[in-house]
Design goal:
The protein is an alpha+beta fold and about 120 residues long. Helix content is about 25%, strand content about 10%. A three-stranded antiparallel sheet has the order 2-1-3, with no helix packed on it.
Length: about 120
């Protein structure tokens, strides 16, 4: 049985313009507002590790990942898979994957999820 099925864990929510992250329980009424600016927080998933607030390059990579509709999750949506999926952490990694997506016609979300931008990944 799934260990994580018995407990409801908080999700990470991020406000990219403020460069802050919070852990909250999901609300039925939609995403919670940012306490700093009032905008809706973006759900970043269970395995999100926010970069330091001063690291604007890393936060631009987070903005690209979240803007593409990806979340920082492990292999299993319930949290059983302890090997998290790849997400770019720098602006250079994002630019390399966006260039491959533009050149090959691969969807941006799929290109951002690849460890090696030129090689498609197979799910285990």
């Amino acid at each position: 049985m799934c260990f994580y099925a018995m407990v409801h864990y908080k999700l990470h929510y991020a406000c990219v313009p403020c460069r802050v992250s919070f852990k909250r329980f999901p609300l039925d009424s939609g995403p919670p507002p940012c306490p700093n600016c009032g905008r809706a927080l973006v759900c970043a998933g269970h395995d999100f590790a926010p970069p330091p607030r001063r690291d604007t390059d890393a936060w631009s990579a987070v903005a690209a990942v979240l803007g593409a509709g990806l979340r920082y999750e492990g292999l299993e949506p319930c949290g059983c898979g302890k090997r998290p999926r790849f997400r770019p952490r720098t602006g250079a990694e994002v630019r390399a994957r966006l260039a491959v997506a533009a050149r090959t016609g691969v969807p941006v979300a799929e290109a951002l999820a690849r460890r090696d931008p030129a090689v498609p990944e197979e799910d285990d």
